[in-house]
Write a structure and sequence with these properties.
It is a single chain. The protein has 415 residues and is mainly α. It has 16 helices and no strands. It starts with a helix and ends with a helix. Helices cover 77% and strands 0% of the residues.
Length: 415
């Protein structure tokens, strides 16, 4: 097996992995994810096309009862994949009001999609007719372009496909270059830049192969030169798909990383949240469950669940103020400063001491009274508040019952 053959398997596997990874969100996600079905269709179509180019499948199909069948399947699936990605480009622009000002690049994309839908059907029909009529398929091929170099029938057949592929690549390169220039998110800009680069390779790939085939009709090249040219351009196409697959995945990786951070926040907040909700069972929408159960509640998005937990914790702390004296706050601060010299960690530990001691006071039968003083936090937004609560929850897990009693007793001794 040559390095080129091995690379073909790797890129086909990479595209398949991307298609499988994005399939659940495309098929069963929310309305925004459903718009990405077109992009998933592109991944799936190109994955099939790439597998037909791998050595074992290529030889097996080409030597079947339909000679060179791998070529026809590859071009069918690639054509459908191209139509899918052009549809996705239009879908991501959203809707504009009737009669409103629509940006020129959006109008251009919509026009291309309308033309592409008809062009795809025409391309598939024409490829089928040419494949079974003018292409010399008397002998199964291995490398279709090099094996048929100099044959006008195969040249005409491939030119039809390359015109469609090259035009689509140019449109994608133009649209994604604009999107890259206007993107403010770094990971999105990197991903779009890689996809743009891939499409420029695609334009060069189709132009070079089309030119090679028509020049070969006039002056037929040697077999060694034709095979070398085929391998070089094939390598360029594999690079194209590598950049496309990775570039298209980077924005999704960014979202996946954000979701992972949310899951991590839930994991850290859960013990504190559950203990507070157990103390005030009338507060949460549903009784607090175990962490695995909470993490698998797919009916609520992770970001919404984290925000709700943060609000629940804040509300519970507000209610706990009625069960403790004002002296608990300075007692918690003194204990934290004694245990942790670093001011930032001491502040989080002081909040943890206060919550733990307040819960113990309530559980011990302390009567409700006026609201006690608490330390006000100056979070600039919801993310800051969640980050602070995560630190408090981490400190809370280190607080022992003995230390909690010490804090409460220090309040009583200074009362």
């Amino acid at each position: 097996m040559t390095p080129l053959d091995l690379a073909g398997y790797l890129i086909a596997g990479l595209m398949t992995a991307v298609a499988l990874w994005r399939m659940p969100a495309a098929l069963w996600g929310d309305e925004e994810d459903k718009r990405r079905r077109a992009l998933w269709g592109c991944y799936a179509g190109f994955a099939v096309a790439l597998w037909t180019k791998t050595k074992i499948i290529r030889i097996g199909l080409n030597n079947s009862s339909v000679t060179d069948l791998a070529v026809l399947i590859k071009h069918y699936t690639a054509t459908i994949a191209i139509l899918a990605i052009l549809s996705y480009i239009v879908a991501i622009y959203g809707r504009y009001p009737d009669g409103g000002d629509i940006p020129r690049h959006v109008r251009f994309a919509r026009m291309i999609q309308q033309v592409a839908a008809k062009a795809s059907v025409a391309t598939l029909v024409l490829l089928t007719v040419l494949f079974f009529t003018v292409v010399d398929r008397s002998v199964p091929s291995d490398r279709f372009v090099s094996d048929h170099a100099g044959q006008w029938g195969a040249t005409l057949y491939m030119s039809v496909f390359y015109v469609y592929l090259g035009a689509a690549s140019a449109v994608c390169a133009y649209q994604w270059a604009l999107a890259t220039a206007h993107s403010t998110l770094r990971h999105l800009r990197v991903g779009l830049g890689m996809m743009t680069f891939a499409m420029f390779i695609g334009v060069g790939y189709t132009l070079s192969r089309t030119l090679f085939l028509w020049v070969s009709v006039i002056d037929r090249p040697g077999k060694a030169f034709a095979l070398r040219f085929d391998e070089i351009t094939e390598s360029a196409q594999l690079v194209l798909f590598a950049f496309f697959a990775v570039g298209a995945s980077i924005p999704a990786f960014g979202k996946g990383w954000h979701r992972a951070k949310l899951w991590r926040a839930q994991t850290r907040l859960h013990p504190l949240w559950r203990e507070l909700m157990t103390a005030f069972p009338d507060q949460p929408f549903a009784p607090p469950a175990s962490l695995p159960r909470e993490l698998t509640r797919f009916d609520t998005p992770a970001d919404l669940r984290v925000d709700r937990w943060a609000a629940d914790i804040a509300d519970a702390v507000e209610r706990l103020r009625h069960y403790v004296p004002d002296g608990l706050l300075p007692a918690a601060k003194r204990a934290a400063a004694h245990d942790v010299p670093e001011p930032g960690e001491a502040a989080a530990l002081a909040d943890a001491y206060w919550i733990k001691a307040a819960l113990a006071a309530k559980a011990g039968g302390a009567p409700a009274g006026p609201a006690a003083a608490v330390e006000s936090q100056h979070a600039t937004d919801q993310d800051d508040e969640v980050a602070w609560l995560v630190r408090v929850a981490a400190a809370y897990r280190t607080v022992t019952d003995d230390r909690t009693r010490d804090v409460l007793e220090s309040v009583e001794s200074t009362a």
